[in-house]
């Protein structure tokens, strides 16, 4: 007795159906983030906050690190610090900053920044990007490790995690950039930073609207990156803290 008895036409229809199902499934996988997520889950891809271009930029940091003189002012942080025009700080600075940098990534780069052992001041501005990847408690734990990794005799000027303009469409598309969560994070990080000796916090009230959000005239249009005028005001606020340390 035959195990299967069907007409050739029925068999071809069944085969076409199976092929179509597999084609749709392959297309669905290719058009979604299933494969990247699977690779990350299996540990085949690095976390999204790290990238090849970021590592390449940090290799450049380690080369420039050797050229930093003693008693220098060193900038550490993300795009907020990277975009600063150092002329507004009133002194020569050496920048180890990069857009997209998180507390964790900066912590991983610290062993390659030997200049911090003989620098005069470090200006630290980081934390906003971490909101995309971790809880407040996890960010605070990484930030504590970062502060502990700094030489104890180094003066540190901390730039707060700035609020955003929530009315900007780009901010609305990023729920992790809510001012409520940013405020909670800044409170935690600032308290931890000021518990460290030889640490000052920049006063950024001049950049804020009455409701505590970032002034709409001081960002570049996306709701969080500063405009030229915003950079000037932040630079001057940092310079005041550096001047206070020089007295």
Tell the overall outline.
elongated
Beta percentage is: 5-15%
Structural class: alpha/beta
CATH topology-level name of the largest domain: Rossmann fold
Termini separation comes to: 101 Å
Largest sheet report? 5 strands, parallel
CATH architecture of the largest domain: 3-Layer(aba) Sandwich
Helical run tally:
9
Taking strands numbered 1, 2, ... along the chain, how are they ordered across the largest sheet? 2-1-3-4-5
CATH class assignment of the largest domain? Alpha Beta
Number of domains: 2
CATH superfamily of the largest domain: SGNH hydrolase
**What is the gyration radius calculated from CA atoms?**
25 Å
Number of strands: 5
Following the backbone from N to C, one meets helices and strands in this order, namely HHHEHEHEHEHHEH
Helical percentage? 40-55%
Mean pLDDT: 87
């Amino acid at each position: 007795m035959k195990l299967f008895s069907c007409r050739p036409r029925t068999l071809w229809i069944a085969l076409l159906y199976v092929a179509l199902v597999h084609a749709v499934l392959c297309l669905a996988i290719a058009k979604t983030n299933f494969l990247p997520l699977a690779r990350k889950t299996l540990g085949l891809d690095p976390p999204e906050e790290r990238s090849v271009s970021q590592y390449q930029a940090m290799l450049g940091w380690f080369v420039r690190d050797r050229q930093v003189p003693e008693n220098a002012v060193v900038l550490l942080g993300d795009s907020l610090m990277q975009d600063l025009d150092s002329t507004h700080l009133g002194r020569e600075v050496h920048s180890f900053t990069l857009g997209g940098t998180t507390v964790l990534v900066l912590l991983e780069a610290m062993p390659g920044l030997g200049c911090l052992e003989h620098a005069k001041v470090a200006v630290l501005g980081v934390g906003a990007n971490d909101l995309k990847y971790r809880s407040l408690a996890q960010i605070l734990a990484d930030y504590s490790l970062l502060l502990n990794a700094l030489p104890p005799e180094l003066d540190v000027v901390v730039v707060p995690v700035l609020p955003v303009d929530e009315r900007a469409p780009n901010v609305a598309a990023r729920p992790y950039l809510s001012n409520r969560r940013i405020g909670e994070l800044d409170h935690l990080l600032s308290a931890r930073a000021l518990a460290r000796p030889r640490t000052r916090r920049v006063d950024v009230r001049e950049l804020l609207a009455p409701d505590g959000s970032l002034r709409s005239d001081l960002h570049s249009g996306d709701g969080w990156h500063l405009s030229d005028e915003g950079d000037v005001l932040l630079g001057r606020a940092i310079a005041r803290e550096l001047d206070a340390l020089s007295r």
